[in-house]
Fold this protein.
Amino acid sequence: MDQVRFVIITGLSGAGKSEAMHSFEDMGYFCVDNLPPALIPKFAELCAKSGGQVSQVALVIDIRGGQFFEHLFDALAELEAVGFQYKILFLEASDEVLVRRFKATRRRHPLVPEGSILDGIREERRRLQELKGRAHHIIDTSHMTPRELKDKISHLLGQGHADGVAVTVMSFGFKHGVPIDADLVFDVRFLPNPYWVEDLAPADGTDPAVEEYVFKWPVTQRFMEKLYDLLDFLMPQYTAETKSHLLIGIGCTGGRHRSVAVARRLGEFLRSRGYRVAVQHRDLCS
């Protein structure tokens, strides 16, 4: 059962647990907020039996669970009894910072909705003292920006920035519109078009014959060299900015031949550079 990477995010209200969860989502974790602790063992079992479909999980468990929160240690004991490995990430901040954050958001503290925010913070510290002592990682977010918190989490979990950048290469047809969420768009309509070759027109860019036709031309080979060189420059820049996802659009006229072949080849290149890549063909069946 230890094949599932299982992280429990907890800590003080206002310390940044929501931001932490967003960071885990960006790193490809399946995230659940405020799961009752009593359900943790069953949920862990389901993840372990998912056949690898759910291999990274982050759960936010905190004082909002009320009386259910008291069952957390029992749930952790059940995980340990069956050999399920987990990590606890505990977030905290100074009283002054937490009070300021609550006032800025005009939220009430969950423990004292009608009382003093500071009283709620102090009571929460007292209740979480034992859990903090069992934490594998403790992060003080008092002086952290969301980006700095994300960097810290990535470092603690042993994930470099390259792992944190998920790349989608999407082929599309301009006649169906440019993907509205594309970060980069490359127009390959200047390449020789298999559509005008009678034997190739019914096929698409996943067909070896179409792929061979697209890449046999010097103009295509030169374009790919320049495209690879550009992305070799750009990807580390995006990584340094902790960009979590990049969508690269490759467009031809209909989205069935040239763009598909180029997108597939580009996906192979980016994987060879160590990036997590998904290749999608938006208009292949249009």
Summary: Residues 14 and 100 are 9 Å apart (CA to CA).
